[in-house]
Each structure stands twice: as C-alpha cells, then as structure tokens.
Amino acid sequence: MLTGESGGPSVDRDEAAHFSTQAWARNADLYEVIRAMPFNAELAAGSLGPERFRHYMVQDAHYLIGFGRALSIAAAKAPDPDRMVQFARAAETAIVVERALHGGFFRAYGIDAATFAATPLSPACDHYVSYLLATAYAEPYEVVLAALLPCFWIYAEVGRDIHARAATGNPYQAWIDTYAGEDFARAVAEMIAATDEAAAFAAPALLARMHRAFAHATRLEWMFWDGAYREAVWPV
Fold first, then answer.
1. Does the keyword Heme apply (predicted)?
2. Which domains, ranges and CATH numbers included, belong to the chain?
3. Is the dihedral of CA 76, 82, 88, 91 positive or negative?
C-alpha cells in the first residue's frame, strides 16, 4: 500500500491488516528524518553540489548491481511463478532501466566505464549491499522481501515529496521524475503486495524477523544518503 501521507497511517498491530502498514508506522519517524535530510532538501531545491550528486550516482549504480542480485535470489525463492516473474523483472529494471538513468548523468559528469569500475563501494554502499545479499542468501523468502521493500517504498515517497517541491529548472529533474513516476509507483505497489502476501500466514517469530529486516534496511537508506552528502570514502 502506497501511502499518500508522509508518515503513513498510524495503527497498532492488532488493528493492522497488513505487514506493510505496521512496518511503515513503526519507521515513520525515520522516514521523516530521511525526507528532511540535507541531501534530499538540496536535491529538491536544485542546489545540491554536483560533486555530491556525482558521488551518489556512482555509488547508486554500484548498489543497483547488488540490489539486482538480491532480487534475483528473491525470484529463485518465490513460491509461485507470478512472483518469480515479478522479481526477475524487477532485477532487470534495476540493472537495465535505472542504468539508463545513470548513463545520462554519467555522460554529463564524464564518468566512463573504467572510472566507474575503478571506484570502490563506499562504506555505506558496501554495508547495504552486503546486508541485502547476506539476507537474500541466508534468510527465508518472507524476510528477504521485508529487507528489499524499504528501497522501493522510501524512494517512491522521497521522489513524490521532492517532485512536489522541486525548484523550476532543477538540474536533477530526470532523477526526480523517475522516482515520482507512475511506472515506479506500480512497481512499489506490487512489491508491497508481495510482501504483505508473504507475511499473511507468517508465525509471530517470523514476522518479528521481517520487522527487524525492514527497520535495518530503512536505517541503511538513511546511511546511504548521508554518506553521499558527506562524499564518504574509506578512511584507510
């Protein structure tokens, strides 16, 4: 369920019909921190420094490779063919469609394939990718989806929020339009539906693991943008 309000509906566990409603409500405060953090505020204003955005785009391209691998593992673990196809297509989108978005910015910033390959993953990117892949390999299907969901959902919410307040002539409009667009919103809604479906008959202990995975991935979303704003690299 995509929420139209910035914090999503606030309900307790007994009243919630879906895992997604519960998970969003539990992490709504952190979403507000993400929405207002300097990277996203300056991105909306069009004042974000080009070097910060360049750092972000390179790291995001690295991240999407790992994200695509995790989605492929989710496809392999999916219990039915429809979900297999959904996650396989999502993996393809992460690699092919979003790479096209990155490609335009890469050309503008003079980043060629060799430069990209020679740039190591930042600490936040490395942590996030490692977490998703470890979860995808080691955890049950339900927990894998809970770990993958924040990237979809938070990007859609941030994209919509930035789109609503973006400055005219924003140099990052292509990025804003991608994540605020209808195609991405449909993909997010499908991911939420799949996660709620997986959680519907999960035992309480498994639901608790799903909530931990969702919360940790949400923290890593914050870390990724914070690291991009600081242009963080390995200190040693």
1. no
2. 19-230 (1.20.910.10)
3. negative
